[in-house]
Amino acid sequence: MADLRTDFVGITSPNPFWLASAPPTDKEYNVRRAFEAGWGGVVWKTLGLDPHIVNVNGPRYGAVWGADRRLLGLNNIELITDRPLEVNLREIKAVKRDWPDRAMVVSLMVPCEEEPWKEILARVEDTGADGVELNFGCPHGMSERGMGSAVGQVPEYIEMVARWCKAHTRMPVIVKLTPNITDIRKPAAAAMRGGADAVSLINTINSITSVNLDSFSPEPSIDGKGAHGGYCGPAVKPIALSMVSEIARDPETAALPISGIGGITTWRDAAEFMALGAGSVQVCTAAMTYGFRIVQEMTRGLALWMDEKEHGRLEDFRGRAVPNVTDWQRLNLNYVTKARIDQDLCIKCGRCYAACEDTSHQAIAMQPGRVFEVIDAECVACNLCVDVCPVEDCI
Q1: Annotation marks residue 138 as catalytic
Q2: How far apart are CA 380 and CA 360, in angstroms?
């Protein structure tokens, strides 16, 4: 069977699947259950030095569902850990002692001053943790206090803090990037200049998922009021893949190790991130939706696919898709495809016809008996009919 062992900037784990810094990694109980289920590592929920962090005691999550109520996106307004720092550090040390083969990375967020970073790094290092992740991505609550994405949106701050951290710890330093920025390559390059060992991305996207039309309050609603939060889950995966690819294919940052985050739910999602250059992947929403044992499907699926493709190690396919990501003006405009409808699979719903007739190129004809056929002369191969068809491989 394929070898899933991972070495990410010197941090080793039996597989590349880590739990991201989030509610599932907030305490010893959860992390032990995660390791028992088979997770290769965790990024412990963000620690800080402020002893007065208070989270809301009402709803912390808003959701976006598909037609079958499958969770597509999750919005959260939770802050960093509200548990005492000493308790977290004691638990991190105990778990790492009992699970030495698993990756133990600790997420950190303190004010943008050198002394607080120096203090917390020393305390985390004493736990035996494998590395730290600098949380420069959180878009809500903490950003209003001058931390999180307030730092991540200023490349000069990223470079400065990364340099402080590298000067004050032996541990690998991973910088977690915010997607709430115009060009993800700039903060990645800043992290690299500051000496960071790697970047992780994406953190959550600033969002309001819905508005209650009875109370006219954004969800989640706290006593009739709502606030913007961080959006994650399957819906953000395309954004995350694009940002990972931008860093991986830019000459300035191509050598920078990447831990991929954003909507990873299946082994296939993970393989796509790794094909775009990620050396490890972090998961949150899938675990919160289906429980920790989902990692067993991920590891088995990835190993079976690697066996089928004769990839003995993760490095055999990591980054293989990067050369195929290009700019639009370099696409081959002489490449031509046409849609084809498999009449044996067609259920005659007419979605392809309606979409093409009303919103595209009038390239599908409806024949007697609701038989739908492509008009080659009009088809520009836009793929809309394929995307709206409810039957896989019918078009």
Answers
A1: yes
A2: 9
